[in-house]
Write a structure and sequence with these properties.
Blueprint (H helix, E strand, L loop, with lengths): L2 E8 L2 E8 L2 E9 L10 E9 L5 E4 L5 E4 L10 E8 L2 E3 L2 E3 L1 E5 L14 H13 L4 E4 L2 H11 L6 E3 L1 H7 L1 H10 L1 E4 L2 E7 L4 E6 L4 H19 L3 E6 L6 H14 L7 E2 L7 E6 L6 H6 L8 H13 L7 E5 L1 H8 L2 H11 L3 E5 L8 E4 L2
Parallel strand pairs: 1-11, 6-10, 11-12, 15-16, 19-20
Antiparallel strand pairs: 1-2, 2-3, 4-5, 4-7, 5-6, 7-10, 8-9, 13-14, 14-15, 16-18, 17-18, 19-21
Length: 365
Amino acid sequence: MNRTLLWDAAPGEMRAGVVENGKLAEFRIYRSCWHAGATGSHFTARIIGRTSNGKPLVDIGGTIEAQLEQAPKLPEGALLAVELVRMPIAEPGRWKLAIVRPAPDIDMQSAAGPIAADSAMRHFLLPLLEGADRILCGDALAARDLAGLLGGKGPPIAIDSAALDEADFEGLADQAVRGEFPVEGGLLSVERTRAMTLIDIDGGGDPLALNLAAAQQIPLLLRLLDIGGQVGIDFLALPDRAARQRVDTALADACAVLGPHERTATNGFGFAQIVRPRSRPSIPEILCATTPGRLSVESRAVALLRQAARSVGAGTRRIVAPPATIDVLRAWPDAVGDAATLLGYPIELVSDSSVAGYGHVHVQS
């Protein structure tokens, strides 16, 4: 199987896509501003209290608190080495804490705090690189930085901006925010709730044909957007058990791309469930955080920073945005500095509560 990794690097955010046999199969986003670590990373944690369910609460640095599972009996203030098993997860209106577990075989001196940014990014990259024949970057700078990050290992790296344009990460991100995806004969509507991700199927015409198309498409969509946890699928009503069985078989066959998962049979009401491991936030959760259906303040800040870094012209770039967005950018001095270095011009942050939309970038000349 032909497998290509697409790498779109910009200050504050990296976007990656895995193309298999000419089709985008996985889309991932790395945010340097909040990816303090990846699952499997080690930290020195301090017990600071207890969560609402009585589990020990620990501080792992970088303003990140986590719930400690399988915890030994230790007093508040005690230090121990831990392994991150789930990153913080955004749900509608709230955040779920990261989860860590003791790592007794790890020397605390080697887990003295959040892992370095380049190590975190390599951790993000390695699963995407498995089986890849090549890596395509949008420009020479991204290719050089990626080669340095990988230390000369991995598949060959080439520059192909057209391939990234064709993948259309921006368009896919917009769809993920809206939660609407076309399927032959209809539309898949994806909605996040605190209990699960719900997928509704709408459209006219033959309900069996639409259900079969949806059953084939939904597992691909879950993999594409890295959606884990509980997923509920509400198929259109069908006239008999034989028709439901055809849909159930199609869904089972299509789920082969998901790797480890559990699946219920489609019941008489046309409802089925898929349960996947959920160790990190999905693409919709990264983009929208606790506000499903619209970009989070952090995502708006990232979008403006990317726009500034890729703007054309001479002179200072002025990012004008609502106060909340500017406050986020001011909290990211490294990312803003990287964008200014890339441009060769200063970046000025202007807070304006009257600005329309999520803000704009002004080029001096």
